[in-house]
Amino acid sequence: MPPDIEKNVNALIDNKEFNTKSEVFVTALRFYFANRESNFEDKIEAFFLSERGKALMNKLIKNANSAKTH
Q: 29-61: per-residue pLDDT in tens?
């Protein structure tokens, strides 16, 4: 296992997010298999059409406009 991955896995266990390395790997693989066929473009579009997405876009536009005037 690459050292950076091992460090992150150990941190998850140390932080009590998981009890064992096996739990970390099973969760990661379940997530992978559940999402490998996902169309993230559709999910992103759905997010930006949601109330939270619209609020985020408005905030970003407001911040960008504010930065232009300074």
A: 999 998 887 788 888 999 999 999 999 999 999
User: Are residues 31 and 44 both part of a single domain?
Assistant: no
Q: Which domain holds residue 21?
A: 3-35
Give the torsion sign (CA, 10, 16, 21, 26): negative
Check if the beta carbon of residue 54 is closer than 8 Å to that of residue 61.
no
Please tell me the pTM assigned to this model.
Answer: 0.56
CB of 3 within 8 A of CB of 18? no
| CB-CB neighbours of 43 under 10 Å | 11
